[in-house]
Design a protein that fits this description.
single chain, globular, six-stranded mixed sheet, about 325 residues, D-Maltodextrin-Binding Protein, domain 2, five-stranded mixed sheet, alpha/beta
């Protein structure tokens, strides 16, 4: 029987067969004989299954089904790390869940990033299929071949806040000279780049007069202020509102002392090789979330009134601001 099986299989399978026999012949020590027998039976079974599987292809006929062309693809939806990964999933995960509910023939997964540096690297590598970046990440992603199809609709929310403890003696920007300030990360537009530019406009040399501490998220920045680990720190309005709601006792110890001017809010983007039909469906679903009960819940969870239409040109003011910043201060991603 073994000889018949041997001649039935291909050269590769015959080579595997010979290997099995050799293993069996070497396992002749008395206390291993029983295990070698199990090995032989198990591996022969695998080969027999392989032969059966091969036979099924002889009568293969193509299956012309009406399944969606997107069914077998998983699309990664990334969100910029304005909060720690767990909190980010709690806030933005329902939006991705909503997409899966409304587009059942497509599969989306939510992906958080450990910090801004990791998130920026993923954009540079075109890792995300869909992404919700901050405005600086938006112009960076446009340069990497992503296209804007919407933006967060809370106009005026994309601005920087500089906070201190209520018992702080900081009154003017000059009082921050030589002090340590907490920021989420070097490329956080609202909570790093815009506050730095504001302090620059107030006469500080932000390269020399302050000592930045990059703490990974806005929540961490607020906690550093509350604990007195830094003289001041930054956030942006949605993160500050959420901190006030979730940590009211800690938030009562802080106060906002300065606000920057606003810029266009965070965008919705798709990589340029995603099928246009799918991008249009995703855009239609997200831009009309207010029309369903579940959509409203997801929007409220993000502290967001709505997503609104936008395109690449919406973020031209951000490019102008970045150019101004880099001309007067230096590269935005330099600590």
């Amino acid at each position: 029987m073994l000889a018949i099986l041997y001649h039935y299989y291909t050269q590769d399978e015959q080579q595997t067969f010979r290997g099995i026999i050799q293993i069996y012949m070497t396992l002749t020590i008395n206390n291993l004989r029983i295990y070698s027998g199990y090995l032989l039976i198990g591996l022969l079974g695998l080969i027999l299954l392989g032969g059966c599987e091969r036979n099924t292809t002889d009568n293969y006929q193509p299956d012309y089904s009406a399944a969606s062309p997107f069914t077998n693809k998983v699309y990664i939806f990334g969100v910029h790390p304005q909060r720690n990964p767990k909190k980010l999933r709690e806030v933005f995960g329902p939006m991705v869940d909503y997409l899966n509910q409304q587009l059942p023939d497509v599969r989306f997964i939510f992906e958080a990033s450990r910090n801004f540096q990791s998130f920026d690297k993923k954009i540079d590598q075109r890792h995300f299929d869909f992404v919700l970046p901050n405005p600086y990440g938006t112009v960076r992603a446009i340069d990497m071949g992503y296209q804007v199809f919407g933006q967060m609709g809370n106009q005026g929310d994309l601005r920087g806040l500089i906070l201190v403890r209520k018992d702080s003696d900081i009154r003017t920007a000059a009082d921050l000279r030589g002090k340590e300030l907490s920021f989420p990360g070097p490329t956080a537009l609202a909570a790093t780049i815009m506050p730095k530019f504001y302090l620059h406009q107030q006469g500080l040399n932000v390269k020399k007069d302050i000592r930045p501490r990059y703490v990974g998220s806005m929540e961490s920045s607020l906690l550093n202020i509350q604990m007195g680990a830094v003289a001041a720190g930054t956030a942006y309005p949605p993160a500050w509102r959420m901190f006030q709601q979730q940590q009211p006792n800690l938030a009562r110890e802080l106060k906002v002392i300065w606000k920057t001017d606003p810029l266009p809010d965070n965008s919705l983007m798709a990589r340029d090789d995603i099928p246009a039909e799918l991008v249009n469906r995703v855009a239609d679903t997200l831009l009309n979330m207010r029309q369903t009960t579940e959509g409203l819940k997801a929007l409220n969870n993000m502290d967001l009134s709505a997503f609104i239409p936008a395109n690449n040109d919406t973020y031209l003011p951000v490019r102008t601001f970045i150019t101004q910043y880099e001309t007067q201060i230096g590269p935005v991603d330099a600590p």
